[in-house]
Automatic annotation (TrEMBL):
It holds the Pfam family DUF2065. The keyword Transmembrane helix applies. It comes from Rhizobium gallicum bv. gallicum R602sp. This is DUF2065 domain-containing protein. Keywords: Membrane, Transmembrane, Transmembrane helix. The lineage of its organism: Bacteria, Pseudomonadati, Pseudomonadota, Alphaproteobacteria, Hyphomicrobiales. The chain crosses the membrane at residues 40-59.
Length: 61
């Protein structure tokens, strides 16, 4: 449970940094998001999941 909460904390830190350091970039990305095809978003999301799982596996090994 401690690892899970640590992961959530890191997620919040990274999200907060994006809002604090690059709010214009975030707004622009939100504007462009509806124009990106759903298939491309799905592939990118799955790629991020695979990369995250691989990174956790590598670090925890």
């Amino acid at each position: 449970m401690q690892d899970f909460l640590t992961g959530i904390a890191f997620f919040l830190i990274i999200e907060g940094l994006v809002y604090a350091l690059a709010p214009r970039f975030l707004v622009e990305m939100a504007r462009l998001l509806p124009t990106v095809p759903e298939r491309q978003l799905r592939i990118f999301g799955l790629g991020a999941v695979v990369l995250g799982v691989a990174l956790v596996w590598f670090v925890r090994r």
